[in-house]
Amino acid sequence: MPLPPRVTELAGFDLLLSVARLGGIGAAARAHGISQPAASARIQQLEARIGVALVERSPRGSRLSKAGALVADWARPVVEAAADLEAGIAALRDERDSHLHVAASLTVAEYLLPKWLAALHTLAPGTAVALTSGNSSEVANRVLAGEADLGFVEGPDLQTGLRAETVAVDELRLVVAPAHPWARRARRIGPDELAATPLVSRERGSGTRRALELALAPHRLADPLLELSSTTAIKAAVMEGIAPAVLGAHTVAAELAAGTLVGLDVSGTDLRRALRVIWPAGQALRGPAADLAAIAARGA
Fold it and tell me: What DSSP string describes 41-99?
């Protein structure tokens, strides 16, 4: 049921209780951190709303009228209940802000999130973070199910019920073993040849795989030679010479620098992809979730 219009605003009643407790409008004004004219105006507004005089004013000061004393007695449990409500809400917010559940795709979880979480710890050291990882589809499902406050994905698709913002742009890299025949070429492969080559690939639902499928959409894509759900396992398979792979640049930077993998360019194909933060539509990121999203946007 809607609140009665005369009691929807409790600040005036709270001030009236202070007048009763402290014995005057001036003392009540000081307790509330406002000027005496402002306190007098607030009491007058309350009197106008109620329709009776609540304070008797005289050269010697102010005191509650009989009606004011009655209203103060009635208002006291209401104001105290409102204070309890505010304290309870604050406790809930503190509890929420002390725990953060994050879901992230493997590339983000392994290669980017550690630095972002270190920055969050500096900003909010009291926040405990629980991280789960999986492919982009699994991350989206966790966020939709309420199992994560926010997620980080690599895939270009966005499920219904989610909002997303780009925090970084990553690039896919075609990599082969140093002994692979492609490594001895001019290190540039055509998209048609890449599409026709069975690769070591992530599983369906992976953002990396989906981004590659879209980039090579004009060409018929061969079925993977080997599907693995671990980026580390894919790199190991490529090093063993099983087949080439296409992985995020962040994930192969160390191997390319060490020479254990060789990177090749793909001509005429844009292999960039967005890394995005996702959260439930209709909600706003708050507290440590908003902080982490901002850190990701700055740090990536």
Answer: HHHHHHHHHHTS--EEEETTEEEE-HHHHHHHHHHHHHHHHHHHHHHHHHHHHHHHHTE
pTM of the predicted model, to two decimals? 0.63
CATH code reported for the domain at 5-95: 1.10.10.10
pLDDT in tens, 163-222: 999 998 889 999 999 999 999 876 789 999 999 999 999 988 888 898 899 899 888 889
Domain spans of the chain, in order of start: 5-95, 101-275
CATH 3.40.190.290 assigned to domain 101-275? The reply is yes
Q: What angle do CA 133, 140, 119 make, to 5 degrees?
A: 50
Q: What is the pLDDT of residues 71-128, one digit of tens each?
A: 888 888 888 887 777 766 665 565 555 689 999 998 899 889 999 999 999 988 888 8
